[in-house]
Amino acid sequence: TIQELFESQVEKTPDNIAVIFEDKKLTYRELNEKSNSLARILRTKGVKADSIVAIMIDKSVEMIIGIMGILKAGGAYLPIDPSSPSDRIKYMLKDSGTNILLKKDVFVKKLEFSGEVIELFDSSLFVGDINKLEKGSSANNLAYVIYTSGTTGKPKGVLIEHRNVVNLLNHMQIRYPIQQNDVYLLKTNYIFDVSVTELFSWFMGGGTLAINKHDNQKDMNNIIDSIKRYKVTHINFVPSMLSVFNEVIGNDLEKVNSLKYVLAAGEELKPRVVYDFYNKFNNVKLENLYGPTETTVYASMYSTDKGKQYRSIPIGVSTQNAKLFVVNNNKLQPVGIPGELCISGDGLARGYLNNQELTAEKFVDNPFEQGTKMYKTGDLVRWLTDGNIEFLGRIDNQVKIRGFRIELGEIENKLLKHEDVKEATVIVIEGKEDDKHICAYIISDKEINELNLKEHLKENLPEYMVPSYFVKLEEMPITSNGKLDRRALSKPNLDERLTSYEAPRNNLEQTLIRIWSQVLGIDKIGINDNFFELGGHSLRAMVLISKIHKELNKEITLKELFKLPTIKELNELIENSQENPYSKIQKVEEREYYEASSAQKRMYIIKGFDKESIAYNMPEVFEIEGIIDKNKIEDTFRKLVKRHEALRTYFE
User: Domain Carrier, which positions (predicted)?
Assistant: First the structure.
């Protein structure tokens, strides 16, 4: 169990500093004794194996005593952020079934909690019987319950056992060893699972836990001051926060010269962040770690290389006693072929609290290893030839626009290769009539030239992947745990344009503006606005050309529209072109057979002279990689033939 690992280290280094918070310090012996005293009190109140005990407290020494006391009593801790909305706190307290809440300096009357509240500022809790307790839990008992956001709007509690955490801690000590002079910084809010490595890794080798003040967890200058003050060697960063760290630290590296390991996790690590990091640091290891809460913090790890050029940063190889599967339709995918990442092994959670249906949906029988379960992450990945795994995005981040399947992460990667772009996020926004637009949010020190960015993207991406809109931000919105908050990105005004507005000068231009407005779904359009910069694309262009032909009896080509994409230019073109009256194709009545056209009769006669000729055949060969489902391909062709009459037409 976690507490047994800690107690083992207490015997080795009882007088070493275990925890430090501002001017307050505890040795291993003191922390052990205080948590023993609290644990005995909790046991008298009925806490035993698998009991869930809530703790609601800001970062402090008492937080560490409280968590360790819960574990020693045999229970599992449920971390609650005092700043969370009261309805969310009430839900977690009720859903977890806990009847004990440890807290400090928090007003709880409004929470309507009917269980027992224990105030951790009461020093008498820590001076009772300080001797070692009898074993209260085993490897298969719960260690903690962390609530994560759920698709239903209600958070879901993930059940993690001691064996899960101990497996992780042992592997962390192998990969990123803690020694007696090392210091791990606790800066992550304990309601997020990354905090587990901060809360427990430090004692694996007799190191120290330094606690960063709760109020300053997003203040980079404060974090840097904490690194300097406590001589921090190990630190976790969400990649977006690491990017800020790179910028704020500048060349003032003396403040952070104690660092040995920087562990990046929680979101995708971009190549530019890695390059910026290694432009400053030579002897600090930057690690990219990946894992859902349901697989106990980390399931894969990758050590970045200072001298390597990256297209993207892999999420690496599996952690100790974990197995990674890249799956599509219950079949393993070969190297290079995308699929959903599924994870099995010793990190797998017990499931979701009070939610058997969701547990059964996400923790499925492993078809590749009989008798085991695997967790379906919903993340799209692929194997690389070197044995690492590359993260491609969420499966639901794979969008389809105008029939094209698009990975938004690919657009982000290409934007980040532009020298003026520091950070980039791409989302899909809904326009009028459910039309979808790609919108890019940019952080840059320079004035953004949208035309220049579009030209850059067109060099690397097909036209349909180039964003219609670009929004410059001072900073990306982030959630309470430092991750990018996509929902908070402001929706651009679809009526905005690159040019200043100029009104129509004649009736033709007024008609063209009305047609453009119908096609683009934009109300105010000027005669200098570019059709394609307003969100137009090839499909819309064809609709536009058709409408112009119908209303004005003037025909323009797609090539002309691309060459003359403003109303002012089209006005001149249309005025000088000849009329070409629009005529609808007359639909004939449906029959069993139709008379062949002159060209078809000619082909029929020629075919009669040489029945073996393939002169009019149109052969084509397609090379497809990966596993092919022959039955599905045949079924697809059958449906195509059934749908399109022209494919079933023959001479008789």
Answer: 503-578
| CA–CA dist 412, 417 (Å, integer) | 9
Domain finish residue from 560, 575, 590: 575
Rounded CA separation 172/150 (Å): 29
Residue carrying structure tokens 């037409």: 649
The verdict on 520 and 565 lying in the same domain is yes
Residues 602 and 545 in one domain: no
Looking at the fold, whether 569 and 610 belong to one and the same domain comes out as no
Torsion of CA 571, 576, 580, 581, to 10 degrees: 60
What is the DSSP track for 442-489? Answer: EE-SS---HHHHHHHHHTTS-GGGS-SEEEE-SS--B-TTS-B-GGGS
Using alpha carbons only, give the angle 138, 139, 143 rounded to the nearest 5 degrees: 90
Checking DSSP bridges between strand 300-303 and strand 317-318, what pairing results, if any? antiparallel
Give Cα separations from 645 to 604, 632, 636, 642, 651 (angstroms). Answer: 19, 21, 15, 7, 13
Say if residue 29's pLDDT is above 70.
yes
What's the rounded Cα separation, in Å, for the pair 45 and 42?
5
104 part of a folded domain: no
Chain mean position to CA 519: 34
Evaluate the CA torsion angle 37, 38, 44, 49 in order and state its sign. negative
Domain extent for 483: 423-488
First to last CA, the chain: 81
- Please compute, for residue 75, the number of CA atoms within 13 A of its CA located in the half-sphere on the CB side: 32
Q: Does 625 fall in a domain?
A: yes
At 569 the three-state DSSP class reads: helix
pLDDT confidence of residue 545: 86
- What mean pLDDT comes out for the span 300-314? 92
SS3 45: coil
Distinct helix (H) and strand (E) counts, the chain: 18, 27
- Taking every pair of C-alpha atoms in the chain, what is the biggest distance, in angstroms? 107
State how far the alpha carbon of 209 is from the alpha carbons of 20, 61, 126, in Å: 6, 10, 20
Does residue 433 surpass a pLDDT of 60? no
Residue with tokens 């971009």: 270
Residue 62 maps to a domain: no
Tokens of 560: 């002309």
126 neighbors 38 (Cβ within 8 angstroms): yes
CATH code of the domain covering residue 463: 3.30.300.30
* Rounded distance between C-alpha atoms, residue 278 and residue 255, angstroms: 16
More confident residue, 6 or 628: 6
CA distance 652 to 647: 15
pLDDT at 585: 58
- Specify the number of domains making up the chain: 3
Q: What is the DSSP letter of 212?
A: P
| Helices 408-416 and 271-278, packing angle to 10 deg | 30
With contact defined as beta carbons under 8 Å apart, do 66 and 120 qualify?
A: yes
Residue 641 inside a domain? The answer is: yes
**Strand-pair partners of 437:** 429
Render pLDDT for 262-303 as a digit per residue (tens, 0 to 9).
999 988 898 989 999 999 998 999 999 999 999 999 999 999
Same domain, 566 and 518: yes
**CATH number reported for the structural domain that contains residue 537 in this entry:** 1.10.1200.10
Relative to beta strand 208-211, strand 398-401 is unpaired
